[in-house]
Design a protein that fits this description.
This protein has 222 residues and is of the alpha+beta class. Helix content is 45%, strand content 12%. The strands form two sheets. Strands 1-2 form a two-stranded antiparallel ribbon. A two-stranded antiparallel sheet has the order 3-4.
Amino acid sequence: MNFFNFEFVNNTIHIQEYPEADKVLKIPDDYNVKRLKDMLLHWYDLKEAKSCLEALDDENSDVVNKALVQNAIILFYKCFGNSEFRDNSLKKDKVLAGLPLGAKNVFDYYKVIRDKFIAHDESRYAQVISGIILETSKFFPFVDTVQMVGVVDIFKTEKQKQSLEVFYRLIIETIAWTEKTIDQLRDMIAEIYQKQQLSYFKDFEPLTFNTPTEESMFKKRY
């Protein structure tokens, strides 16, 4: 992947690595361009998921470490499955092709954690018990009610930490797959436009970035 430094001038993007370039134009959203954009969104989420796991530390509070792990899980699986905003979600079979069976088992394990514990309440990782307190020496023994929440700690034991290390490596492998796909798509798009003369680009719009308004925030990007 290539990275550029840029600046905004009158809401127009200028690439600092190409000082002689006097125009930066928007590419029409065909299939490959949309796919490239979706892959870049996946890449961004995956990099953040990786950073979350790298921030785990025994010096952190349990709340902080748990939040980091849960956020990493949510960001990772956000890239898979169906999405109204991303037509090109990552496909498990393609990303995991060639990886050991253990990677696939870890993928499935944390997918269940995400679906049935973090995003939805469809498991017994968290349970509540409810009872009454009595003083049996009294004629009316009732004293009070008592309720307790019990949550299974699924990120702290040595075995669980080892599992998270495998999950971390799975994220890295997924980032590598995504970066390879981004490079392939970028090369395909570049091959099309490098053959065109200047007149071909006369109707292309300048490349700009506009912050979404409240009305447009939840409308599809493209």
